[in-house]
């Protein structure tokens, strides 16, 4: 790994090797998502707790202060929407020149293993890696899953993560699963971060799965809706940071959340 790649990767992960990525890219296929109508206002109080923002170029240019010190992971795949025929039919949306101009620390792209567009999205990943490696820009592969809940099982997730790593992704974002998540992580030779998925019913549910995933080898999270759609987003962010970077248990995180919530 060259100096440039090491430097960018070091910006994404703290000294403990762990990370808290905050995705706000949902609008690229969902439109004005609840609590992201004004992304700049949503993220402002959360920036002290996250290690990187996952964002599209449009929101980055129009809503994110260029003076912030938080690294940027740029979403560079898309081309579909919730009202379209198939969310898996994505293409690359951003050129390498634009990626360099925006001075981002990494880029992120979705792959849809097992879908009708598996080959296309895996080729998107390979093409992106080919371009980004020339300039020492790490690629994060997102093992995207639609409504098929059975695809959030270890066998499928392990398959998707390993393929992403084999094609050159430097980081893989995937879903946590209750059974055999350690097998997903152990079968992937690059760092694995956990996606949030659909909004959880309770904060404790979030803390439990994040703690479990960290114990089983994940290096961090890439959670959005379970943070900024919560009525107390800063309290959730601080509690999650405690699990990721301070070795807090789910119980300790919940206590911290309740303390911050009641102090307001």
Please describe what this structure looks like.
- Helix 9 (about 205-215) runs parallel beside helix 11 (about 235-245), helix 9 (about 205-215) runs antiparallel to helix 12 and helix 11 (about 235-245) runs antiparallel to helix 12 (about 250-260).
- An 8-stranded parallel beta barrel has the order 1-2-3-6-7-8-9-10, surrounded by 6 helices.
- The protein contains 12 helices and 10 strands.
- The chain is of the alpha/beta class.
- The protein has one domain (about 5-195): Alpha-Beta Barrel (TIM Barrel), CATH 3.20.20.70.
SSE layout and pairings?
Elements: H1 3-12, E1 19-23, H2 27-30, H3 39-43, E2 52-55, H4 57-63, E3 72-75, E4 77-78, E5 91-92, H5 96-101, E6 106-111, H6 118-134, E7 139-143, H7 154-166, E8 171-175, H8 181-186, E9 192-195, H9 203-215, E10 220-222, H10 225-228, H11 233-246, H12 250-262
Parallel strand pairs: 1-2, 1-10, 2-3, 3-6, 6-7, 7-8, 8-9, 9-10
Antiparallel strand pairs: 4-5
Helix pairs in contact: 9-11, 9-12, 11-12
Please describe the structure with a list of short key phrases separated by commas or semicolons.
about 260 residues; TIM Barrel; eight-stranded parallel beta barrel; globular
Could you give a quick summary of the protein structure above?
This protein has 264 residues and is an alpha/beta fold.
- CATH architecture call: Alpha-Beta Barrel
**What is the H level of CATH, i.e. the homologous superfamily?**
Aldolase class I
CATH class: Alpha Beta
**What is the overall shape?**
globular
């Amino acid at each position: 790994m060259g100096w440039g790649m090491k430097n960018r990767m070091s910006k994404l992960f703290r000294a403990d090797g762990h990370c808290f990525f905050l995705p706000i890219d949902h609008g690229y296929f969902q439109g004005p998502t609840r609590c992201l109508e004004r992304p700049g206002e949503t993220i402002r109080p959360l920036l002290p707790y996250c290690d990187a923002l996952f964002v599209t170029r449009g929101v980055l240019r129009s809503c994110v202060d260029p003076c912030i010190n938080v690294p940027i992971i740029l979403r560079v795949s898309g081309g579909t929407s919730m009202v379209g025929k198939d969310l898996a039919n994505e293409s690359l949306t951003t050129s390498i020149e634009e990626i360099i101009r925006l001075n981002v620390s990494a880029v992120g792209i979705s792959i849809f293993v097992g879908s009708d567009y598996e080959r296309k999205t895996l080729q998107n990943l390979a093409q992106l890696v080919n371009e980004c490696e020339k300039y020492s820009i790490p690629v994060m592969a997102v093992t995207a899953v639609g409504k098929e809940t059975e695809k959030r099982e270890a066998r499928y997730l392990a398959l998707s993560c390993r393929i992403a790593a084999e094609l050159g992704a430097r980081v893989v974002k995937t879903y946590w699963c209750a059974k055999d998540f350690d097998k997903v992580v152990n079968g992937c030779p690059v760092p694995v971060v956990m996606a949030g998925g659909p909004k959880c019913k309770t904060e404790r549910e979030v803390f439990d799965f994040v703690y479990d995933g960290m114990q089983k080898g994940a290096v961090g999270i890439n959670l959005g809706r379970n943070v900024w759609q919560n009525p107390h987003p800063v309290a959730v962010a601080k509690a999650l940071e405690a699990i990721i970077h301070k070795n807090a248990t789910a119980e300790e995180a919940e206590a911290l959340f309740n303390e911050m919530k009641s102090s307001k």
